[in-house]
Amino acid sequence: xxxxxxxxxxxxxxxxxxxxxxxxxxxxxxxxxxxxxxxxxxxxxxxxxxxxxxxxxxxxxxxxxxxxxxxxxxxxxxxxxxxxxxxxxxxxxxxxxxxxxxxxxxxxxxxxxxxxxxxxxxxxxxxxxxxxxxxxxxxxxxxxxxxxxxxxxxxxxxxxxxxxxxxxxxxxxxxxxxxxxxxxxxxxxxxxxxxxxxxxxxxxxxxxxxxxxxxxxxxxxxxxxxxxxxxxxxxxxxxxxxxxxxxxxxxxxxxxxxxxxxxxxxxxxxxxxxxxxxxxxxxxxxxxxxxxxxxxxxxxxxxxxxxxxxxxxxxxxxxxxxxxxxxxxxxxxxxxxxxxxxxxxxxxxxxxxxxxxxxxxxxxxxxxxxxxxxxx
Length: 376
Known about the structure:
By secondary structure, the chain is of the alpha/beta class. The protein has helices at 11-22, 89-103, 150-155, 215-222, 270-290, 295-298, 300-324, 328-338, 341-350, 357-366, 369-374; strands at residues 2-7, 27-30, 45-46, 59-69, 76-87, 106-108, 111-118, 123-129, 132-143, 163-171, 180-184, 195-200, 203-211, 231-240, 248-249, 252-254. Helix 1 runs parallel beside helix 2.
């Protein structure tokens, strides 16, 4: 019997597999696609923090600025001292997986999880590997299998309440400013979220997220800013931007997108997924050492990750809910406040895409009238 089965070889699943294998545990990592990192379903914008955990050279570009387009307004340009990194997501995923395999993880690609059952003495997973139905027993199973997690579906009664659907095109158009991303707000570009254009040399990643469905329809408005006949790739998929009330169960844990541990304001899940994997490692290690896999014992996992990033995700979730309800008129009123030199300077000095609540509170304390302007 295995010590651990990890479903999913994205960054969170691979990092957890790496940490557990490095400790000496017998880990099986199941990836339902034929190749780790494919298909790509991510824009791939991260901070340097990610590279504290992952050894990777998958850097496509470094940016330090952003043009933010509010409805019917001139773009607001911000620039940070710290660079944001644009990665080749498929290469990044392969690098994390290589860390796991190098540490001893048994990686099985083209192995689609079919179902999970929890017994008194083990967790039992059934999967299809290269067309053959197989079963595996383990002491604990981890759901790192994304927004449509089979582990969550079979073992948990809840799914994330807020889902963003995304649509992104890789376009063979080169943005003039390779040091700045573009962000588009307003009802023309999205419902309750935003659109973007990210430079990576001769390829630009152009996409959007929207609450609910219809991302493809919104893209038709976005593409007017760019040549429409230079598409070299299309990606997309759901992103959960609210975490579950319970991310643990008997002989099971959920990490990353499967648990909804994602940044609500940007939809970014790489950093938060790895953070959740780090805390899952601690909880799983303790469970294996104590041979205790009850829901009560494994509840410590949720305590660990919430003590780390729970407050940030909760506050960011509230901010996102507020933002998602703003009309174009309200956004234009907010723009008048945010575009002042004082606030732009504040954004430039303390803006952080991993921990944005600090900036929001700083701006509100300095200019509380922004809330009134947002409600016009």
